[in-house]
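Standup notes
- HV: blocked on the assembly model, inputs below
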Amino acid sequence: MDNTTQPTTSGVTGLIEDWVSDKDAFKNVSWGKTMMWIFLLSDTFIFSCFLVGYMSVRMTTDVPWPNTSEVFALTIAGEHIPLILIAIMTFVLITSSGTMAMAVNCGYRRQRKQAAVLMLVTAVFGVCFVGMQAFEWTKLIEEGVRPWGNPMGAPQFGAAFFMITGFHGFHVSIGVIYLTVVALKVLRGDYEERGYEIVEITGLYWHFVDLVWVFIFAFFYLW
Amino acid sequence: MQNNTDTQPQQHPISLYFKVWGLLFVLSSFSYLVDYMQYQGLLRWTLILVFMFLKAGLIVAVFMHMVWERIAFTLAILSPPLCILVLIALMASEASYTNLNRLIFFG
């Protein structure tokens, strides 16, 4: 923004203009991108609170914590494989992060069709992830896991599991909607004049969802 | 305010993304192998943390383009989460105290 211009408007419009006219500290970063990063920063704190809460209950309990390796094992073709579902979910999410990075790249090359298609592919991987999570929840609920107790060990396991994975799955679901909306707008050519930074901003959100999963995978499933 | 004159598009060679993508797959496989091989104790926790930070670092640095941003921006975004370390320390000391009491009175 140009700081030398004199205020010309009053009322609510003037109020808004004054608030947005401050000198920008972040060079080369647009407002849209800054705001997405600040939102992601606040989200980092939310997820950290969940994970620290999980750490606290896991440290305080004197009942053994359920063995996640066994809880999330699946029998595929007669073969008992520990934690396999979570491993597949991790790979699906990383694959989607890759297609998202490609979409951002295509956007800046102004190949809008490729960018939109790659974003939709990313969204499909997101749907796969949420689908597998729904399967996982169903399986655990059938086995008697509840937020207040479970047959495998420490009763806090259920509360931590549903809260952390639920909130993450919610983020993925919102991300799928967000990606689809932006992809359709990209396809329609809404950003031909403004440029395709919006694809990068959407990508930031999606990569963040993957980033949070890295921490959940390490602390909740592997620890 | 949209100001396209001073925002530089994040344009980087596509081969770099492919390399990082591949690396993330390899690191994820290693994380999974930690569980599959049933490593326990200190070795398990160290490996989990190493692979976790490498993956997180690659995603933030390359996929989220943080390595190409200016320091003012990087610090504004990446330094506040360090506060969480204080929270972890406080909660860990509180939790071990609670655990000790539970062992003494209910154990």
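- HV (later): unblocked. Residues 11-68 of chain B form one domain. Confidence is low (pLDDT under 50) at residues 1-6 of chain B.
- Next: hand off to the docking folks.
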